[in-house]
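Consider the following input, taken from an annotated entry for Amine oxidase domain-containing protein (Spizellomyces punctatus).
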Amino acid sequence: MLGRYLNNPQTQTLCLRVSFPHIRSLVSIMGDVGIRSNQEVFDVVVVGAGMAGLSAANILHRAGLSVVVLEARDRIGGRIHTCMDLGRPVDLGASWIHGTDGNPLASILPSKRISTSSRSLLFRPDNFQPIPMDDGEALWEKFWALRERMGEAAKRGHGDVSIKEFVDSDPEWKSAVQETPLSQLMLPRMTQLLESIEAAALEKCSIKEFEVDEYPGEQAWLIDGYMPVLEQVAKDILKTDGAVRLNDEVVKIDYSGDCDGGTSSQQPLVNITTASDIVYVARKCLVTIPLGVMQNKHTSLFVPPLPTAKQQSLNKIGFGLLDKICLRFPYRFWPNDVDFIEAFSERLPYPGLTSFIIAKGDEHDDHILVAFASVKAADMIESMADAEVTELVMQVLQKCFSHMGQIVPYPEQVVITRWGKDPFARGSYSHMQTGRTTHEDREELAKPLPDLMSGEKFPRTPTLFFAGEHTVRDHFATVHGALLSGWREAERILKGLRK
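Applying the prediction step yields:
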């Protein structure tokens, strides 16, 4: 093992970890470029410790490469954030496994507790009276049938139309709406749920969202949170001292090939500079930061600037916003046999706060509701104080449950996300913008740099790679999409290093 220590408190760990097969190549690199006292050398530097970054790093580490993961936050996970502040695990970010049949995450699930139940308690939008469960199930059947028709139409090449345009023009939906007075009242408002699912305004979100292949099976809610799944995926890299470095924000990625300020080298290298002024020198660099951050910071982050095609694709893909308001109550005041509470109404304190998920745990701690706020509602709560947001949520619950003879107690504890204001997220997940995004844009974002197909006379071997849910054609906006992208890039990096 070859290494040295730095005095910087954030990097008091081995700065150079290499397995025996790589010592010769890295010593050669160090001799060529003259490594400075504030530099560290690795085979691969991974930027971002979310699912994409950690899944890739784990594979590369197991292959014997020296790998370091740099994370700007004080925790791993990125948009996976299992919070324990409410007395039991509650996911503030990703919380679902979308389709359990064939999903790469499914092999991890047998040892994890999941819930696939989806019983909903619906409230009328005119008087907030609860709707009988059987009537509610009939309404949901029509809603999910609409969702299926959108997918079928998209795959048939229906065209790049917005979800709103499709809903407004779908004859079967129009017929379903007119069936009964209750369907006339409820179905038009239930489309608000699509906005929460996509984290985007329906007029801006294309039905191409549903054109992609999806895993069949149940939609699973992780009772103990997503963090145990992430820890299982990345178990080897996480137990390696110094391999994951927190509070180490990357501020510049120089992939020009001129390592150490222009010193020539036999191998093109990448310089990764952090806010603590540590320079990491790598044979390969994998960037897994969220799309929202890439859109906001790419001009100052990359040297040289990203190619025009990649910049254009970055700006054509939408990045939506979905926030959560998590409330722990002293006792449960909702029925035992429901999983969701839905209140669709323009009369609510603000539109967009419509859905509550019951964060089920053991019987003694089953007192937590998670409210969802999307798009405009999310924008609104991000500018409000916690007490104001809590009061608005309480108004919704009190309107609904007063008709059931229930007194809604004030919550003992509240945790509110603000993913839009989070400088290391700047939103929630990506979507297809109507008239702008193509699947080729996601493929463009996944291309490594330098691009071997760029037409250069003497193209260099790629040194800069990209992963994340926004780089996946068929499984974007999902955790398994991020996982697949990490595996994809790990394989690509290993293939390049073997040449």
